[in-house]
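To close the chapter, one final illustration. This time we ask the reader to focus less on the individual chains and more on the assembly as a whole: which components sit near each other, and how the overall shape emerges from the parts.
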Amino acid sequence: MKTHMMFQTVDWKNGCVVLIDQTQLPKRLVSVRCRRVDEVRDAIKKLKVRGAPAIGVAAAFGVLLAFRGVRTQKTQALLQQVKKASARLASARPTAVNLSWALERMGRLAQKNVNLSVSHFREALLNEALAIRDEDRSLCDAIGQHGAGLFKRGDRVLTHCNAGALATAGIGTALGVVYTAQDKGKNLSVYCPETRPLLQGARLSAWELVRRKIGATVICDSMVATVMKQGKIDRVIVGADRIAANGDVANKIGTYSIACLARIHKIPFYVAAPSSTFDFSISTGCQIPIEQRAPHEITQPFGQTTAPRGVQVFNPAFDVTPAKYITGIITDQGVVYPPYRSRLKKLLRSPCS
Amino acid sequence: MKTHMMFQTVDWKNGCVVLIDQTQLPKRLVSVRCRRVDEVRDAIKKLKVRGAPAIGVAAAFGVLLAFRGVRTQKTQALLQQVKKASARLASARPTAVNLSWALERMGRLAQKNVNLSVSHFREALLNEALAIRDEDRSLCDAIGQHGAGLFKRGDRVLTHCNAGALATAGIGTALGVVYTAQDKGKNLSVYCPETRPLLQGARLSAWELVRRKIGATVICDSMVATVMKQGKIDRVIVGADRIAANGDVANKIGTYSIACLARIHKIPFYVAAPSSTFDFSISTGCQIPIEQRAPHEITQPFGQTTAPRGVQVFNPAFDVTPAKYITGIITDQGVVYPPYRSRLKKLLRSPCS
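The assembled structure is written out below.
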C-alpha cells in the first residue's frame, strides 16, 4: 500500500505560488496565492509556509514570480531579476539550509541557461522549480521506506514540532516515516509535544495524524520527560533544518532537550531529513546560524499578555543537537549511524549540489 | 537589610478569606473575598490561589468560614462543621500535602478544644489559622537565610513555575532564597521558564522579579536545555508540592525535565520547601498522587483552539523528581544533602504534625 498525500502544502498554479496558510491550522484549511516575490518572502517569514523542505520548494517557485510583469526580450535582464529575487528570498529565514540550497540551484540553472531565449529561459526555470518540488516528494517517499523498518509493531513514537506533509512537498520526513510504517501495518501511536511558542506540534502534527487516523496525544513540551519516565515512548523521531558534516542537527527549539531526555531514558532518537538538508560546508553545529524571533511570540500568545512589562525574553527558533545524542539519521539514501562524519560523506556525495 | 514582603497573597480580613486572584496576573493585581467554604475550594481548584504553602494557609482560613451564619451554642455542632469544611477543602487538589497538613492541624486543634465554649472554640481556631499563616511567613524567612549562602555573586539562576511570594504567605520558598541572597548583595539574575500550560513562570515569577527589580528572562519550557548548554545557568532552584521520606520531590510538571537537564549539564539543582511540604508517611515519590487536569488547559489556551478535534491530551499538573537528581533540599531547618532518607528524618522531626 502506498502512503498517499492528502493535500498539497506548496505548489505552482496558474502563474502563482499557492500555499496552505499554516498559521490558520487547525481551525481552517485555507490556501493563499502569492503573486509577488515579497509575498512569498513574507509567507516564509510569518511561517504561513514552514518546514525546511517546504521552504525550499516555496522559494524555488518564488523565484519564478520575479518574471511577472517583466516585458523584456533580454535573458540577461531576467537573470538579474532571478538574482534579486533570490537575495530577497534567502534573507527570509537563516537556519534552514534548504532555502539557500533551492535558491542556489535555481541560480545555477539560470546562469547556465542565460544564452537561451527569454521564453526558453523561463521554461527552464519553471521546470527546475517543478523538479525541486517533485524530487522533494520522492525524497520523502525514500526516507519513509528507509525509516519504516526501524519501527516495531505498536511502537509509541514521540516527535517534535512538525516534520510532516505540511513541512514538505511530499508526505513529510519524520512523520513520513511514521505514515509509511503505519501503511505497512505497524499500528503506531504518536505523542506530539505542542512546541511552544508557535505550537506546530499541537496545531500541525496532531492535525495531520488525526486526519490519517493515527492515535495522537498532545502534551506540553515540559511533559516529555514524564511520558518517557512512565515508559510511554519507544522511539523518538524528528526532522531537521540543517545538518552539519559531523552529524550535528539544527531543528526546532526543544529538540536538543528531547535528545538529552531520550539519552537519560535510554530511548532511541532518530532524525529524518532529505539530502537537501545537509550542509557539508560547515564542520559542526556550532556554525549553524540560529534565528532569534520576536519576544511577543512568547509574551503575547494569541494577543494575550502572559508576561509583565520590563521582563527580558530569549526566543531562539532552533537549537543544535550534538551528533552524540543521535541514534541514527534517516536520509533518502539510507539510514546512517555513527560515526557520522565519514559515513554521511560516503552516503551523500555532494549533497548540497 | 531584611527582605520585605510586597503584598499579601492570602489573608483573613473582617471574617473573610482574601486572596490575590492569580489568574488575573500579570495584567491586574486584584483580590477576591471568599465568604463561603466552597468559594475557597473553588479558588483553589481554579488556581486563583496556588502554591503548596499558600494553599495550606488558604484552607486553614477556609475552615473558619464554616462558622458563618451558624447560630449554635453547641461546640460539638461546630466541630461537625469543621470536619465537613475540611473534607470539602481537602478534595480541591490532591498533590500538595500542605493542604491536608493544614486541615489536619485545624482538625486536631478543633478536636482538642471541643470542650470550650462556642466563642472560645472559634477564637482558638482563628488563632490556629493565623498561626499557620505567620509560621509560613517565618518558614520562608528561614529557608531564605539557609539557602542564600548557596548562591555566588552574579549567579544566573533558573527556577520553574512560581515558588515565590505568590505561592506562600511569606516571601516564597525558591524565590524567597533568591530575594534573601539578593538582599545580601548577590546581584542575581533569574531565568523563568514560562511553565505551560498555565504559565505561572511567565505570569507570576517574572512579575514578582520585575517588581523587585531583579533581572528576569522569560523562556519557553523547551529552551531550558539550550540556555544550560550555552552556559547561561549557574544554579537551579525550584519549590515543591510534596516531598517523600526518601527525598523524591513532586513539583510542577516540567521540574523533572529540568532536573534531568541540570544533571547532563552539571548544574546544581536545589529544592526549597518548608517542613509542611514533607510527607514522611510515604516512602518514595511513586506514592504521591499526581493531579490530572482538564485537556482544555493545553488545547484551548486563552479560548483559542490550538489542537485538532479528536486528539488525545495528557495533562498531569505535577511530576516527580527522583532524589538522585537533587543536589540539596533547602528547608527551614537547614540544607539537607544526600543521603536524604536518614538526614531528612534527623533534621525534621515529626514534620507532618
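The longest helix of chain A spans residues 118-148. Chain A touches chain B through 57 residues (CB under 8 Å). With these observations in hand, you are ready for the problems at the end of the chapter.
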